[in-house]
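User: Show me an example of a complex going from sequences to structure tokens.

Assistant: Sure. Here are the input components:
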Amino acid sequence: MIRFCPAFPAFLAAVFGWAVLAPAQETPLALIGAQLICVSGETHEEGVLVVHRGKIIIVGPRGTALPAGATTRDVRGQIIMPGLVDTHSHIGSPAGGDQSAPIQPDARVLDAVDVRDASIQKAQAGGLTTANIMPGSGHLISGQTLYVKLRDGNTIDDLLITDKAGRVAGGLKMANGTNSRKDPPFPGTRAKSAALVREKFIAAREYREKIVRAKGDADKLPPRDLALEILVEVLERQRVVHHHTHRHDDILTVLRLQKEFGFRVVLHHVSDAWKVAEEIAAAHVPCSIILLDSPGGKLEARDVDWKNGVVLEKAGVPVGFHTDDPVTDSRLFLRSAAFAVRAGMSRAGALRALTLTGAEMLDLQARIGSLDVGKDADFIVLSGDPFSVYTHVLETYVDGVKVFDREKEKDRRWSTGGYGAGNPRPAHLCCYGSWEEAR
Amino acid sequence: MKKSARYFVTLACLLAATSLAEGIVVHGEIIHTMAGAIIRDGVVLIQHGKIESVGEAASVKIPAGWRVLKARVVTPGLIDAHTVVGFSGILNQPHDQEQLEKSTPLQPELRAIDAYNGRDPLVEYVRSFGVTTLHTGHGPGALISGQTMIVKTYPLNVDLALINPAAMTAATLGAGAKAEKDKAPGTASKAVAMLRAELIKAEDYVAKGKKSDIEKRPARDLRLEVLARALDGEQPLLITVHRHQDILAALRLAAEFKLKIVLDGVSDAPLVLDQIKQSGFPVFLHPTMYRANNETENLSVETASKLRKAGIPFALQSGFENYVPKTRIVLFEAAIAAANGLSQSDALAAITIDAAKLLGIQQRTGSLEIGKDADLALYDGDPFEYTTHCTGVVVSGVVTDVQPH
């Protein structure tokens, strides 16, 4: 179903290694009797899930043979599904680029995430196991995003996903529309916004060509440019663009730029997606959508609608969800998908959107996003139907390590809130309007 | 409530001429009347905008030719105990934001009725989930930001939809009351000092107004006459307050001036439950899913159930936030409370009958009882479930157009 570059994710899967933080299951752990929603394959009504050393080693129906020496747990009456993948979040309160320029691909979220921020524990409490942490949308290009696994980390390094060469997994955040329109040096119109972006990508092409022409001759190589070298990764389709966009015409502008420069892109928010679903489908571009309690809040989001999920699904567009935390609360991520179902999206599609399709948007589908043998042991234990308001996330596992347990008072507080579970600073909500004081 | 009675007569006269004479039968598999037990396989008969009969389908005679609406679940029309819908418009641009004017910190004279936009799309939006009554008006964010009103979500013409044009006066204490840089109040203490000074002026205004010598009576003062209504309890102060020390400051203020107040927001309520209970004042609790940041950092989704256990009267609200969602839906806030310790019937009460009582409109709405306004919400399942749809809304006896959400 996902159509963006089938070869490259396979390549990444081959080279990616995982920094596993805490030791997990020296003996296999078998969870027996829960309904297993595997996402990639069939659902087992009373299934068997066995994890060992951070990986899934057995998934099967009732009666599946267990490995010798396995620790067993009876989880009948509960539901287990893959850990949720949030394709667009601001947990850890990072900032990317500053106000000095509209295009800052050199800024890394890596250098700005606060792993001790309460939002990270709350995301674990909501069943998230992987998140794409992004800089804001107040720039045409606000910086490099970071794909993290929500392990219990002491430093940001503990959460990273890195390949063998040491490259940190992440994308590039871009935006169009009104958020990035400001006083100079920021653009004042949509056309100017597109022109600035095109100019920069053309510069990146020339930079790449110079490097190619130099053939490794140090004297002929251009001086290293931290911004352009990231855009070269984008042109080479190694780094995915995560593009904030709302209005129908802005969506088409992204597709036009994507066609010109050939980069891989995920459209984010996409408020007006239902108006241009056929165009999005024709461009073979996936969408990560947000579901809000009410439309509006800004001009461009006036027509945002829960039906985006079903309309895109029917048009054949791969759909993922995001929290945009703190715009919506990570603890209520399942709720977003439930509202898409309420508006007509298929349950199977919504479950896939929360997990495997999200993983595909981050090129991580070979390792996460479904309950399959060999994948990382990232899963959640639910008290009931994933789309019921009465369901609670009971446990969250990342790489086989339990990072949230509702039975533990300390963890439970992250789920319910309460004294000390909040953030003493105002919410960071980017960005529009002069009276918006949060930024 | 004379003025609201007058508005209602106007409403009744205008609407009766059109469609209200038509009888309507709402047939529900489950009817939450909020006045006694749940009725299974029940009907509500509606005519002339009022509820004519409620009971089991087998025991109520259904007149021939009446329009029949069917639903799995029927509840009273929902009441949002505190919102800014109609003031904080959908676009969030300066031209559609009427909930807060910050030129001076104390502006009780700002009437809600002069700014309410019944045609803002969010009014219709919240109605499409079953909300039929809004307590809306000036928002938090100034020491006194103005007044509030109670209005139905249909019809869109405010004069026809109005229940009470001057319900409460909106005040804020704590960090939320702070004025712009270098202006007063700049601290929580200063905010209380300024409000005390103004209430003393109002007391003086009331006393002088009673002088027999008309020459010695003060000139009419729009600000002080609103505060005078707070002093005599006719128009309570709705005090938005979150931190425990600011909650206590509000209670101190109420005791000093013998004010009737409603505590609004109250994120730290679990820390001072005894004091709130002792005061006897009700709470309009922050939206269950409100963001836990800054003054609200300690809020919990379990606070509603704690208020219930403590016996503190409360209602739920959609509140105010300056970004998205531009409004929350009070049904959803009750749903999350119901998923976190509050019983389903208590959660439903917090957005129907309990809210009506705390707003003083229980004679009109909030439950399905004979003689009350025909305000009903229809659902195709448990109203709190994420995947249930609202399939119909009746406001004052009118079946409104509902795109099921």
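The lines above are the inputs; the final block is the predicted structure for all two components together. The domain at 78-365 of chain B is CATH 3.20.20.140 (TIM Barrel).
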